[in-house]
Amino acid sequence: MSDFHPETVALITGAASGIGLAIANRLLSDGITNLSLLDLPSPSLSALPEALTKNFPAARILALPTDVSQERDISSAISLTVAEFHRIDLSVHAAGIGGHGMVMDETSAMEKMVAVNLMGVWLCESMVVKQMLLQEERSLTTGLPYKTRGSIVNIGSLCGLSAARPAGATYVMTKHGVVGMTKADARDYGPKGIRINCICPGWIKTGMTAGLDTSGFTDQIISRVPLARWGASEEVAYLASFLLSDKASFITGSSYTVDGGLSVTV
Ligand code: NAP
Questions:
Q1: Keywords of this protein's UniProt record, alphabetized (predicted)?
Q2: Residue 224 DSSP SS3
Q3: What is the residue with the minimal CA distance to atom 15 of ligand 1?
Q4: Pick the catalytic residue: 171, 189, 238, 256?
Q5: In the chain, what are the domain boundaries?
Q6: Confidence category of residue 24, pLDDT binned at 50, 70, 90
């Protein structure tokens, strides 16, 4: 039996690759059939509905070209999702960009990272919460005598909990912001039945980190990970699915590392 209500609708940003795509696949495997997938316009995004319905024929998939730094794009994606599925129960905010940036660098790169990694999550969370507040609460699938209005997972980073890498001030700042936003919003919207949590991945093999997969990086950085390897996107997706599900009904405002133990070594 699925952990999710049969009519559940999930929205995922950054869904065309890496962690976002792994979460889309995990939610489909875990029984969700209505998915709205947002990412920058690309052939991979356009190909998603056909690619995913091959393995999950019952799935209804919207692929919506969306720049999360643009309020108008997000507003339009939310409207199209609600027009198609009539509600949003779960939302995952995984869109993000990496890169270096120190406090004395040009501010333009910092502004771009803030716009995508921090304001992008802010705008999505704001509009998704507004939509969830329009929806009736429903009973938990676990049978416990409580109600839920929805669940949100933000994808932060180990860099949201510490300055986990050198020359990373801009990224570290945006990810600390995501962790803080998660706490504040969980506090504000918990009483309305909305749970909001954050996942803080360590080094996960995705497009974002592909350029780092060298023997030097492995010797210096990956060798410090207690589990002594890169993480896989799927390993982040298992936790996301749990936090989104009613099995996590008493969990909100928390940030969880998925890092092979790296955070305990510093
Ligand atoms: P990824 O494979 O590059 O996925 C990120 C996705 O977000 C890409 O599809 C990217 O599109 C999309 N994106 C970028 N800018 C966007 C925008 N303005 N609007 C909408 N979508 C946008 O990298 P990932 O590793 O899965 O990253 C997912 C999240 O995990 C990010 O928030 C990242 O900071 C976080 N994270 C990753 C790691 C890691 O080790 N991989 C560790 C900690 C945290 P394009 O490919 O077209 O740019």
A1: NADP, Oxidoreductase
A2: helix
A3: 96
A4: 171
A5: 9-265
A6: very high
